[in-house]
Design brief:
By secondary structure, the protein is of the alpha/beta class. Helix content is 39%, strand content 11%. The strands form 2 sheets. Strands 1-2-3 form a 3-stranded parallel sheet, with helices on one face.
Length: 203
Amino acid sequence: PRWAWGLWQSRERYKTQEELLGVARDYRKRNIPIDGMVQDWQYWSPEVWGSHAFGKGYPDPKAMAKELHDLNFHWIISVWGKFDKGSKNYDELDIRSPDLIREVHRDYVKAEAEVIETNTFGASRTKLTSFGLESQVHAINKAAAELARKEAGDNVLVAGAVGPLGIRLEPYGPTSHDEARAIFAEQMQGLKDGGADFFILET
């Protein structure tokens, strides 16, 4: 989308709903043309690290989203992987516990998100090999995109999340640039086949 090429405002993190909205209101009051407001980590309650639920500092996320949209902001939320008990790898949940992943996507769509990410931050061959899942790279990524696509409907975009490979490339390591491209391409092909609208490269 064109707005994604505009200016985004981010800080280490906002701690409350009112803090984020206060900054957004101030930008509009000063006529500063910011397109996106980024909510970074720890919006969840301290006792549930990585939860996708807002904590006490965010009493009404839907109202917050509405005000941001009324102020002509787009809202970007940083999502951290929350490990399900017994799972070897949280990306595996895309095929092991699809209802759980769908529920997370559904909550973001209900909160009026305009873009949702696939649960594939660590779903590259290099990452999945550590868990004996290297043969399921395409299946996991395709399933993840399909789950997000189903909940997104026609009005929400699906971003195919691609994280770092976690290995050193030549000349600092044994992996060549061509090998790295092939690893990224394998993951991205699965995301594309599952219906992702575009890719988001994360660090």
